[in-house]
Design brief:
Blueprint (H helix, E strand, L loop, with lengths): L2 E6 L6 E5 L3 H11 L7 E4 L3 H19 L10 H12 L11 H22 L10 E5 L5 E2 L16 E4 L8 H6 L6 H4 L5 E2 L2 E5 L8 H21 L1 H4 L5 H6 L5 E5 L5 H6 L5 E3 L1
Antiparallel strand pairs: 1-2, 1-10, 2-9, 3-4, 4-8, 5-7, 6-8, 6-9
């Protein structure tokens, strides 16, 4: 078992992650060490007002930079689906001159879009409890050396290190959940690569008994299976039904060594983090 050590700007303690003893976990660690710079983005849940203001500000900037004509007075799921599609099909080369600042802004816009969608459309704004911290570097994902072993989101517990989603687009579950069926060949992907980032989960995802979890997981699998069959004409060239089910869930590569540090990560204002 190896260690990935993190230094947050406002926490005196080093936060250590105990990585699993797997080929993939070592590959994940070496990929992150190769960046040799602080994370490009550190994100966690804020109040609904903060989330909305951040998204609106970035959307207005996108209109000036990239001519995005988004109706920001109508924050519906259908519009969020359309805006995701604009981002997935966007060609930055058509807006010269290219700069790293433009590229970084575009990724930040995508993150703000997801945050607003989660907070506003799903009314997930009753609490600003920090459930997770997302840490990422702006770089390409790499193929995993071995097939990852995913586990149900229902089984995620406080302290788990969950690999980020590695692509632009959505997982099959999110495509189903958002009823986002337009051009699935463009937008829907399996989480089949090693991403340049991860999430630190700060709370238990669901507090229920094992039998209930099994029933919920079986229901989810049935929903995905039905969705696949209904959209098989778009999906069969991307992945099989069995592949979809095998890649559904979250891929955990380790855990926070000192669980007591989760309270620090939940309460302190954090703006930057480096691997040390």
């Amino acid at each position: 078992m190896s260690i990935l050590a993190l230094k947050f700007d406002s926490i005196n303690e080093i936060v250590e992650i105990e990585l699993d003893s797997t080929v993939n976990a070592e590959f994940f660690k070496n990929s992150l060490l190769g960046f040799n710079r602080p994370a490009d983005q550190l994100f966690y849940k804020k109040s609904a007002e903060q989330v909305l203001n951040d998204f609106l500000n970035k959307a207005h900037q996108a209109k000036q930079l990239f001519n995005f004509e988004w109706d920001l007075t109508n924050l519906t799921q259908d519009n969020f689906n359309l805006w995701h599609r604009d981002i997935e099909t966007f060609d930055l080369s058509k807006y010269p001159p290219w700069s790293q600042k433009k590229g970084d802004f575009f990724i930040a816009l995508h993150t703000a879009l997801h945050a607003s969608e989660e907070t506003l459309v799903k009314n997930n704004n009753s609490s600003v409890t920090r459930e997770m911290i997302q840490i990422k570097w702006f770089a390409n994902s790499l193929p995993w050396p071995e097939m990852p072993k995913f586990k149900s989101m229902l089984d995620i517990t406080a302290g788990d290190i969950v690999t980020d989603y590695p692509h632009v687009g959505k997982t099959p579950w999110l495509s189903y959940y958002h009823n986002d069926l337009t051009n699935l060949k463009q937008s829907c992907r399996l989480p089949d690569a090693c991403p340049p980032g991860f999430l630190i989960w700060l709370t238990n995802h669901i507090d229920t008994d094992t039998e209930t979890k099994k029933k919920l997981q079986l229901k989810r699998e049935q929903q995905l299976t039905n969705w696949y069959q209904q959209n098989v004409n778009q999906l069969e060239t991307l992945f099989t039904q069995d592949q979809m089910l095998a890649y559904d869930g979250e891929y955990c590569t380790g855990r926070i060594k000192n669980i007591e540090q989760l309270q620090l990560l939940q309460t302190f204002d954090l703006t930057s983090v480096s691997i040390v």
